[in-house]
Amino acid sequence: LDGLHRLLAGKDYLDKNDQWWIVRLYSKEEYATCTPSNRSRSIETFKHEQPYTDGFIFRKIRLYHREGDEEGENRWWARLTKRKRANLKQLLRNRALRNGFDALLDFPGHWTPIQLGMLNRLHSLKCPEELVEYLQHTADIWDQILHSKIPKSAVDTLTVQNLELCAPGLSEKDQDYVIDLMNMRKIFPTVSDPGLRASLLEAILSVNGIIPSLRTFFENQKYLEPCTLILKRLLGDSDKLSLRAGFFANYFDPQAYSMQCGETTMERIRTSPDNARALAYIQLWMFCLRHFPEMTSLTPKKKVGCVKKSRAYNPALWSLLGTLAVSLGFKTDAALELDRQNPDKEYATHFLRTARPNWEGDFRDPVSKIVQVLHDMRETRLAPQRPIFTSEGGTPRDRRCGKPYDSDHDKDKTFLYTRLLFEPPQRGSDITSLYVKRDIFGVFLRRHIQVGKISSVYPYYLALIL
Predict the structure, then answer these.
(1) Residue of 62, 87, 89, 86 lying closest to 76 (CA atoms)
(2) Residue 427 is part of which domain span?
(3) Based on the structure, what is the number of domains in the chain?
(4) How far apart are CA 157 and CA 213, in angstroms?
(5) Is there a domain that residue 180 lies in?
């Protein structure tokens, strides 16, 4: 049918006896003689004043590429603006990311939300390995849901929209919600067999985590972005390397392996060299996750109707990060320079010169005393050992992806250390904002989390003062 969306215009401008649908009819014999290429062209080139979504076009390009149909692929490339073509071509030059998206091609319901104009963010993050992990995890979860019995084409847009961000294996509230969706046929509507629907429901309820989608993939990049800004500065100039490759290229095995359990507290651990490097890399991410509001211009979201919390930039955190990185084995030039700095001495000198601007004596002794006082005020308690992943109330679905909210970040901050990612979640009424953070970063960093058993030996203080 041509001109379906011209209905309103036709009502306004055509006489009632002149309002006809134009129908193109094919005989079976005529249609059977058409080549597959001509059939596709006939279907895809009807007059369609509503533009196709970016995601729909992206998927068509990759499907035709997979089939080796260059003419069909070029037909869809032509629908993109110059900027979007450039963004997509840049993405497709990265083999790992390209394969990650291709793994989701046969799930049509995932592609609608994609905006090709935002793809430049993928490249600026400089963490393709972490992004690929999320894409592969998304494909794994949806394969698990279909368990080889249901065609991937059954995953339509409405099904994805209704299931994304649910955690039915952990949240009793989400479990009830998914059961209602299945009973009302709001998910997998094309699957009519009762036995298959029951099997689908069982598979969905067994998902032990938050159900991801391509939309949540792009939303959660907003959480990665401030962390990558910090890590890129810590790594220094390295245009050709990803964050992971850059830090691993500057890793030197330390004499003892450590894991941060408080802002100034470490614990010795026993593990293999490869696992130690993976854990060290995770610790850099977790530091950035805790402190990005005070280290970048990107801050958490505020609730509607609430006053946005004022967060002062804290340069001392950079010195702390440099010291942590060097102690873990990452000896980049930037980390070594930050490690040599003494922010307490700078603060003490600034304070004394401001408080006593006319004093002409030697500041070294009073500065030294203030620095010693600050040194003695270091943290003495360990981070909480029992994070709460489920509780009454929980976190609503619309707050389970993207940047965190102010109140959630402040509440969860003291738990955001590496051990959080290894804590087994417990089933309960509903998932908390802390579990959401664990899930997001647990997926992006899952390659590094798959490490051997870690044996704690004893805590000690990280030397922060020179």
Answers:
(1) 62
(2) 218-300+312-461
(3) 1
(4) 11
(5) no
Give CA–CA dist 351/336, Å, rounded: 26
Asked whether the beta carbons of 439 and 248 are under 8 A apart, the reply is no
Name the CA radius of gyration of the chain, rounded: 27
What lies within 8 Å, CB to CB, of 200 at 6+ separation is: 145, 146, 150, 182, 187, 188, 191
Whose CA is closest to 321, among 299, 298, 295, 347?
Answer: 295
Tens digit of pLDDT at every position of the chain (466 positions): 344 445 566 677 677 666 666 666 666 666 666 666 656 655 555 555 568 999 999 999 999 999 999 999 999 999 999 999 999 999 999 999 999 999 999 999 999 999 999 898 899 999 999 999 999 999 999 999 998 889 999 999 999 999 999 999 999 999 999 999 999 999 999 999 999 999 999 999 999 999 999 999 999 999 999 999 999 999 997 778 999 999 999 999 999 999 998 887 888 888 889 899 999 999 999 999 999 999 999 999 988 777 777 788 898 899 999 999 999 999 999 999 999 987 777 777 778 888 888 887 787 788 788 877 877 776 555 545 689 999 999 999 999 999 999 999 999 999 999 999 988 999 999 999 999 999 999 999 998 887 545 655 455 544 433 2
Helices (H), 23-169: 28-33, 36-44, 54-67, 70-77, 82-92, 95-102, 120-125, 128-146, 157-163
Whether residue 37 is contained in a domain is answered as no
How far apart CA 59 and CA 93 sit, in angstroms, is 16
d(CA 221, CA 402): 7
Residue recorded with tokens 């805790």: 290
Q: Is 15 helix (H, G, I), strand (E, B) or coil?
A: coil
Contact of 170 with 209, CB cutoff 8 Å: yes
Strand order in the sheet with 257-262: 257-262, 265-270, 455-461
| Domain-embedded: residue 38 | no
Cβ-contact 388, 426 below 8 angstroms: no
C-alpha triplet 83, 126, 138: angle, nearest 5°: 85
- Tell me the whole-structure pTM to 2 decimals: 0.85
- The answer as to whether 325 is a domain residue is yes
CA distances, 231 to each of 182, 224, 291, 342 (Å): 43, 10, 12, 20
Confirm if 446 and 141 have CB atoms less than 8 A apart: no
